[in-house]
Amino acid sequence: MRSDFLFFIILFNLNLYLSAQSGNIQDRKEIMMILADQTIAWNEGDITKFMDGYWKSDSLVFIGSNGVTRGWQKTLDNYKSSYPDKSTMGILKFEVVDLYPIGENTYFMIGKWHLTRMKGNVGGHFTLVWKMINGQWKIVSDHSS
Predict the structure, then answer these.
(1) For the chain, domain boundaries
(2) Which residues contact 134 (CB under 8 A, 6 or more apart)?
């Protein structure tokens, strides 16, 4: 029930966001839907499903407070190590600041993330590079701080 409500809120905000933007609306909608799916997966405590939005490749690049990580599996392992349980994961909220094309089948996203947790809230900013790979939008580079 809570996931359904959260999904509705995300879709409502998605429609408001898309109506204010220019560019390929379908591409932007698909990317924002993946972000919404990631939010739901995270908030359900499912890091592996959260990772579905990422390119499952050794070429995936993740840049965080510990430096550069290369590869989907290593990124997953780092997430699981940093967020070992649902209480540590908290409730995730994304705010997209900007999303625009930077090349053919490639988008750049700037945003904010926030985790509400009993042990203390945390948050920061992120930049994502999205690329169309085998007919699906995937995050190929993530810089989160």
Answers:
(1) 2-144
(2) none
Residue 91: exposure state from Cβ atoms within 10 A (0-12, 13-18, ≥19): middle
**Are 136 and 107 within 8 A, CB to CB?**
no
Length of the chain: 145
Residues of the chain with pLDDT under 50: 16, 18-22
Looking at CATH, the fold of the domain delimited by 2-144 is given as Nuclear Transport Factor 2; Chain: A, (3.10.450)
Distance (Å, rounded) from C-alpha 64 to C-alpha 61?
10
For residues 35 and 45, give the distance between their C-alpha atoms in angstroms, rounded to a whole number.
15
* CA-to-CA dists, residue 76 to 102, 106, 108, 128, angstroms: 27, 23, 22, 16
Whether this model's pTM surpasses 0.90: no
